[in-house]
Write a structure and sequence with these properties.
6-stranded mixed beta sheet, 24% helix, alpha+beta, Nuclear Transport Factor 2, Chain: A, SnoaL-like domain-containing protein, NTF2-like_dom_sf, SnoaL-like, 156 residues
Length: 156
Amino acid sequence: MPNAGGLTDREAAIDAVIRFVCALDQGDAELSASSLTKDSIMDLTPFRKVGMERGIAEGRDAIVKVLMDAVGKPLDTTHSATNIRCTVQGDSAELTTCVLAQHFRRGEGPSPEFQDYYLFGNQYAAQIVRDGELWRIKRLTITPAWVVGNPEIMNV
């Protein structure tokens, strides 16, 4: 069934995750909110395995605040989603993807003189649902598979 913009259900479900990662790179709270259901849950507890104490955020507004305060506003980033697997059943979808997430301090990303960075290889597992005109993330767990670089970059 075509969605807004002529996307298939599968493409529209994938688009929710693409909006999520693009919002981080653009520091765009409105785009971030468009990717999440009002009652969404984001589980960042797996970051403990790389020495970062993160918790579970509940609700669209709380998640957007966490994302914009920690990544979207204070850092220069690129998040690239690859190896996307998405299965749609009716109005819900299960999605997994690998996300390479590169982080620089604000203003240092575009300059070749700054080579201090922190790069994550993350695994995303998402439950996505049709929510009106858009598909949105209902639950997201982000698990780092590996990291390289300076973890101090993340202390903003």
